[in-house]
Design brief:
257 residues; alpha+beta; seven-stranded antiparallel sheet; 4 helices; 7 strands; 42% strand; elongated; Haemolymph_juvenile_hormone-bd; biological rhythms; To_sf; Circadian clock-controlled protein daywake
């Protein structure tokens, strides 16, 4: 089921944004797998394999690149306004944490790399993402008004994504670095289940009824919830990616055999 959801959950190393000031040049650490030669016959499989190796490591942060951890990702505020039968409500989620980015599975990669350009597509899956935080909500379901506040969590399953990246090299301090010009994501989500306490303040039976309806109609709820969450995820993940691309010259990331 298509849904305009995560970026990322999630462009990770591939979704680099170039910073205005280049950091000191950094050589790839010893634990990195062998760099993929951009003219190698097995380039696509090499990229898939290397991405699968480094993403879980990068999710924990990397001091060499001044990279912050993304497991979990902190999301300060998510505001949702959903008006679609049977829902009409406003909600604010605060102090949320997103878990699961380190569980990404890189299923396939396809790339065309030249001395000055990059055109890459990555197919990824994340089996489970778990979001937790505090909420405040007010509105109605059908003709039934409700309001409440308390803890909440959402489990998203079988997230699939395709990330298409287009980049060009830029010269900085006598070296070429890759600058991503376009990032085109598409997403598909298999399912969602939400839980909340005190959704209908002081009425646990009505809270359970409301949660059952939200889980039954999860697609419009998720679609309304994700724009703010996706924006925050992209910001964190692009920062992680740019910390590598801004530090390591293109010829080190993708040398010529």
């Amino acid at each position: 089921m298509k849904s305009s959801v995560f970026v990322a959950a999630l462009a990770l190393v591939a979704t680099a944004a170039t910073a205005a000031i280049v950091k000191r040049e950094v050589r790839l650490p010893e634990y990195f797998p062998t760099a993929c030669a951009r003219n190698a016959p097995d380039l696509n499989e090499c990229i898939r394999r290397n991405m699968q190796f480094v993403v879980p490591l990068f999710a924990k942060g990397e001091k060499l690149f001044d990279m912050e951890p993304i497991e979990p990702i902190a999301v300060s505020d998510v505001r949702v306004h959903l008006r679609r039968e049977p829902f009409d409500f406003h909600a604010v989620a605060r102090n949320s944490k997103v878990h699961g980015a380190s569980g990404v599975k890189v299923r396939a990669a396809s790339a065309a790399l030249t001395d000055n350009s990059l055109d890459m597509s990555l197919d990824i899956t994340i089996p489970t993402m778990f979001i937790e935080g505090e909420f405040k909500i007010e509105g109605k379901i059908g003709s039934f008004p409700f309001a409440g506040r308390g803890p909440w969590n959402v489990t998203i399953t079988d997230l699939e994504a395709n990330w298409h990246l287009i980049g060009e090299t830029v010269d900085k301090q006598g070296e070429k670095y890759m600058q991503i010009k376009r990032f085109i994501p598409t997403y598909r989500v298999g399912g969602m289940k939400a839980n909340a306490e005190n959704l209908v303040e002081g009425a646990p039976e009505l809270t359970n009824l409301a949660m059952n309806l939200i889980n039954q109609y999860w697609e419009p709820v998720l679609t309304a919830m994700m724009p703010a969450t996706r924006s925050e995820l992209e910001r964190h993940l692009k920062r992680m990616a740019s910390s590598v691309f801004d530090s390591v010259p293109y010829k080190q990331l993708f040398p010529v055999a």
